[in-house]
Specification:
Blueprint: H1 3-15, H2 19-22, E1 45-48, H3 55-62, H4 64-70, H5 75-78, E2 83-89, H6 92-95, H7 105-134, H8 143-152, H9 162-181, H10 196-206, E3 215-221, H11 228-239, E4 245-251, E5 275-278, H12 279-283, H13 288-306, H14 316-319, H15 325-332, H16 338-350, H17 358-371, H18 375-384, H19 386-400, H20 420-427, H21 431-447, H22 458-474, H23 483-503, E6 510-515, H24 521-532, E7 536-545, E8 548-557, H25 562-565, E9 573-577, H26 579-587, H27 589-599
Parallel strand pairs: 1-4, 1-5, 2-3, 3-4, 6-9
Antiparallel strand pairs: 7-8
InterPro entries: ORC-CDC6-like, P-loop_NTPase
Pfam families: ORC-CDC6-like
């Protein structure tokens, strides 16, 4: 297979990260996440996760088209399911048409409810027609059922059977669109009661022999695109679901803004009204092994497809080779650093052999400089209290890797980000990000004429991680109306964390922040948008207030940005900033970064150290 063919095939397998781009190919590479079967219940479910966490893939996997494909296009196997999934994506262009034009908000709510009825009723009827074409033995909706459905939607009286119902419904959809587009001229459409036609068509379908005992899953994707009052409409239906259908909703974190029905006093609660599935929470922390297992299945399925010969023993953990911290230190040139050389000189002067790694020796000298102690005294104390020093070294050794190549003129890779486990942590429960990391690693590796049967070197993986971080940073501007502000925020916070990692002599691995005073509405909006668009990760924390605790939040940049700014992706320590400093990171980046770092006793080496404009220099190891 030529290099061009390999790269094209790699792009075909990995390059299209979005489920929307894959069309029907999405099911060829479908891997069930650990929570997939839990979604197959009669209870309404809300699937929460940022873009790229797999919401669309899962919802489409539950749809009747997905289930048919996953059952190898076998209608008999498909019919063993006790559910029928009807997928609908909330298209921004469509749902945002229901506002303004001199029409009251209350009337728009009624119009949107009718639109929702039309869409879901149509999709259920299309499914019935689809199933009928797959098997000759299907019963069909009788004329009474068809007229009942038509009447509930105010269709023409000429509906006498299933075919005419489908035809009239198609005409009704186009007429409705025309009425809404010209509603300012008084073209008010006839409206149906929220949910009633959907309930009727689902119940009539359940009377057919082929669908007896089955329930319809209404799979609503990109729920965050709905206007607030539109979320109220769907919340009302979710709160009062009949036995014939239930909801499975996909929404970005912070995107479900309204948690009450059309009656503001009626809240929609978990677990009383629905089951909440937060993908990142399920895939990180104590249950991160679930994400790792799922991600391994997703990636290995694709890489095996790339190989010219079937490799049953292919293991992505072996392919994305990792290093110990001590091995990485050697690769970074720790034995050329003056801290290491100082310890070597002391060993000679004291006529001893400490019998420790090169990174450990670097640490002893680093500690002496940081604490203002004499190196000889530090070494003596180490020899007397080796156990306590080992604990201290374990706490610091990862952070030391950022300091080996931290001075001026330190070109090339300043910290490696390699290994399957590292990529899993950088992705933070986001399958799209993990696929990007694997894809970019193999793309660069193949460009260097790498052998697919051999591991991808750490340098290549690190370059890939750097580029993926840069790519996602540059894309932030297009994710939100004020996306440029998110980009500047990430630049500033990332620069601060990067310099603290390299030059700070404070507690190691500071990579989180908390706002210590009252937040303005602008700050709250930025934080919410940052979480929704994967610029930030929100972490809960309990603040003690007397005899009770109040749940508050601290934040970190999404770990995918860590390789670009060169700091730790691990959740360790936080810094406190105030509301004013947070906003200054957006409005006056240079001044804010310099001021915050000065409070940490870190002076900027130059103004160029603060990236006011995004740059993307390929990393080249000059060693």
């Amino acid at each position: 297979m030529s290099l061009e063919h390999k790269l094209r095939k790699l792009d075909d397998l990995f390059g299209s990260y979005k489920a929307e781009w894959l069309n029907e190919r999405i099911f060829r590479f479908f891997a069930e996440p650990s929570y997939f079967n839990a979604l197959k219940s009669y209870r309404p479910c809300v699937l929460i996760g940022g873009r790229g966490t797999g919401k669309t893939t899962v919802l489409r996997g539950l749809s009747y088209q997905g289930q048919f494909a996953l059952n190898h296009d076998d209608i008999n196997q498909f019919d063993k399911n006790q559910f029928i999934g009807i997928y609908f994506r909330c298209d921004t262009n469509h749902v945002h048409a229901f506002q303004g034009k001199g029409v009251s908000k209350e009337k728009w709510i009624e119009i949107f409810a009718h639109y929702f009825n039309l869409i879901l009723t149509s999709e259920i009827l299309y499914f019935i027609d689809w199933h009928k074409k797959k098997t000759d033995s299907d019963e069909v909706l009788d004329s009474h059922a068809c007229r009942l459905i038509a009447t509930s939607l105010h269709l023409e009286e000429k509906v006498v059977g299933f075919e005419s119902l489908l035809e009239e419904l198609e005409f009704a959809m186009y007429k409705f669109q025309a009425d809404v587009n010209n509603i300012a001229d008084g073209n008010m459409p006839q409206l149906s009661l929220a949910g009633d036609p959907v309930k009727i068509v689902a119940e009539q379908a359940q009377k057919l022999a082929q669908f007896k005992g089955k329930i319809f899953y209404l799979l609503i994707d990109e729920y965050e695109n709905l206007l607030d009052e539109q979320q109220q409409v769907v919340n009302t239906l979710l709160k009062h679901t009949p036995s014939s259908y239930t909801f499975k909703i996909g929404v970005r974190e912070m995107g479900w803004r309204i948690h009450y029905t059309l009656n503001p006093q009626e809240l929609v609660n978990d677990p009383a009204d629905y089951v909440r599935f937060n993908i990142v929470e399920m895939f990180t922390g104590d249950t991160s092994d679930q994400f790792e297992s799922f991600a391994r299945d997703v990636c290995q399925l694709r890489i095996k497809n790339l190989m010219e010969e079937e490799k049953l023993d292919y293991n992505i953990e072996d392919a994305l080779v990792d290093m110990t911290m001590e091995e990485e230190a050697l690769l970074l040139g720790v034995e050329r650093h003056r801290y290491y050389l100082e310890v070597i000189d002391m060993e000679k002067q004291m006529n001893i052999n400490l019998d420790i790694s090169s990174l450990y020796k670097f640490f002893l000298s680093y500690w002496a400089h940081a604490q203002g102690e004499i190196l000889g005294d530090v070494i003596k104390d180490f020899r007397l209290n080796r156990s306590s020093w080992n604990t201290r070294y374990d706490n610091y050794k990862y952070s030391l890797l950022f300091k080996i190549k931290s001075g001026r003129g330190s070109g090339g890779i300043q910290k490696y980000y390699s290994g399957w486990r590292t990529f899993v942590k950088l992705a933070n429960g986001n399958i799209r990000y993990l696929m990007e990391l694997v894809y970019r690693s193999y793309y660069l590796y193949l460009q260097e004429n790498g052998d697919l049967d051999k591991p991808v070197p750490p340098k290549v993986q690190t370059n890939a991680a750097y580029k993926v971080g840069w790519k996602n940073l540059t894309e932030l501007e297009g994710t939100w109306k004020n996306g440029a502000q998110l980009t500047r925020l990430v630049q500033s916070i990332g620069t601060i964390f990067g310099h603290m990692a390299k030059l700070g002599r404070v507690a190691p691995e500071v990579d989180q922040f908390e706002i210590e005073d009252s937040m303005t509405s602008r700050t709250e909006e930025l934080l919410s948008a940052g979480v929704m668009n994967l610029a930030l990760v929100r972490l809960s924390t309990n603040k003690q207030t007397g005899n009770s605790s109040v749940k508050e939040f601290m934040y970190m940049l999404h770990p995918i940005f860590a390789p670009y700014f060169t700091y730790s992706y691990r959740r360790k320590r936080k810094m406190m900033i105030n509301n004013s400093e947070f906003l200054e990171c957006v409005d006056h980046q240079k001044e804010a970064v310099a001021s915050i770092l000065k409070k940490k006793n870190i002076n900027m080496e130059s103004e160029k150290a603060i990236p006011m404009q995004l740059s993307f220099d390929f990393i080249e190891d000059n060693d």
